[in-house]
Amino acid sequence: MALEHAILVSLLEQPGSGYELARRFERSIGRFWTATHQQIYRVLRRMEADGWIIAEEVDQGGRPDKRSYSVVGTGREVLAAWLRDPVQPEAVRHELAVKIRGAAFTDDAGRTALVAEVERYRATHEATLARYLTGEVRDFPAAAPLDDQHRLQHVVLRGGIAYERMVLAWLDDVLDTLRGLGR
């Protein structure tokens, strides 16, 4: 997937400025695709030049005008074509998994260091899960009926929640295994 596709989806959900897009990437789109502010602005310029999006100058009353972007017909056609393309499974490259396998070839100090690294790694996933769960409560109240757009957003978030729970369960298993070596 190119960043352009993630931006098209986000702008179709809600037009906005580059700053607003960057905030969405930090808050929700970042659950499955990350981008820096610089990358977003660079891609927005290219998409505008290619005729996929248009920008409207919005007066901010005393502050500099902002450019609010929205998708035009060509951008919708690009997204529709991309949605029809088959998706190939991602190749997994997991450095931590290789380190865990390598623990068989190190001493107690190396294993102790690896346990600390797995614990640190686990804490980052625990924090991510907490953010996802907080976002779910905030953005998808249980009693609120959801339109199709929000139902699709929620199913992606539920996938992220399930993934983080799976990673945490695996890391707990890894820690139990590492701590039990040599016994």
From TrEMBL:
Stretches assigned to the Transcription regulator PadR N-terminal domain: 7-80
Keyword check for Electron transport: no
Entry-linked InterPro entries: Tscrpt_reg_PadR_C, Tscrpt_reg_PadR_N, WH-like_DNA-bd_sf, WH_DNA-bd_sf
Gene Ontology terms, MF aspect: DNA binding
Keyword Lyase set for record: no
Keywords: DNA-binding
Residue ranges that the Swiss-Prot or TrEMBL entry lists as coiled coil: none
Residue stretches spanning the membrane: none
Ranges for domain Transcription regulator PadR C-terminal: 92-178
One Pfam family per UniProt: Vir_act_alpha_C
Descriptive protein name: DNA-binding PadR family transcriptional regulator
Source species: Couchioplanes caeruleus
Organism taxonomic ancestry: Bacteria, Bacillati, Actinomycetota, Actinomycetes, Micromonosporales
